[in-house]
């Protein structure tokens, strides 16, 4: 028995799974772009390639400095985004061809990306306990809704997997 019988805005799990693939493709593309730029800037700062005497930081969340932990999380998020984009194409083809095994990579990547995202948020919350920034609260709220939407998309695709 499937977890869901239909997806929210779509009448069938199949259409909802297609919508989940399109959403996660856009999500992973945007995440890849943002973390790719941040990773490039963090590499320059940590590598000492900047000629400025003032520390440079482009992050609106970690306002004090760039750390090695930040770079590790950016690498993890970038890796998840690349794998996510590849798994989205497998998801679309798997739904189109009714091959349930092709849904598994997408499910695994979205679960792993969500775990990494939650770990990153917990790390940032622990780091930001000292000083509160309203922009940080906005980013955390947005991330909460994105994680919720990822979980709903995951439920939709898992239900489609169970229907096969």
TrEMBL record:
<feature type="transmembrane region" description="Helical">
    <location>
        <begin position="137"/>
        <end position="158"/>
    </location>
</feature>
<keyword id="KW-0812">Transmembrane</keyword>
<dbReference type="InterPro" id="IPR031720">
    <property type="entry name" value="DUF4728"/>
</dbReference>
<feature type="transmembrane region" description="Helical">
    <location>
        <begin position="72"/>
        <end position="96"/>
    </location>
</feature>
<keyword id="KW-0472">Membrane</keyword>
<keyword id="KW-1133">Transmembrane helix</keyword>
<dbReference type="Pfam" id="PF15860">
    <property type="entry name" value="DUF4728"/>
</dbReference>
<feature type="transmembrane region" description="Helical">
    <location>
        <begin position="103"/>
        <end position="125"/>
    </location>
</feature>
<feature type="transmembrane region" description="Helical">
    <location>
        <begin position="21"/>
        <end position="39"/>
    </location>
</feature>
<protein>
    <submittedName>
        <fullName>Uncharacterized protein LOC117653529</fullName>
    </submittedName>
</protein>
């Amino acid at each position: 028995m499937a977890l869901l019988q239909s997806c929210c805005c779509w009448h069938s799990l199949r259409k909802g799974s297609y919508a989940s693939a399109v959403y996660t493709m856009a999500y992973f593309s945007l995440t890849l772009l943002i973390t790719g730029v941040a990773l490039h800037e963090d590499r320059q700062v940590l590598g000492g390639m900047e000629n400025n005497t003032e520390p440079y930081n482009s992050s609106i969340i970690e306002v004090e400095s760039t750390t090695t932990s930040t770079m590790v999380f950016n690498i993890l998020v970038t890796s998840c985004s690349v794998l996510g984009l590849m798994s989205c194409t497998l998801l679309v083809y798997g739904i189109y061809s009714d091959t349930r095994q092709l849904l598994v990579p997408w499910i695994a990547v979205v679960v792993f990306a969500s775990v990494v995202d939650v770990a990153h948020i917990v790390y940032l919350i622990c780091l930001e306990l000292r000083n509160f920034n309203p922009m940080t609260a906005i980013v955390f709220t947005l991330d909460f809704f994105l994680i919720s939407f990822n979980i709903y998309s995951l439920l939709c695709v898992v239900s489609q997997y169970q229907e096969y």
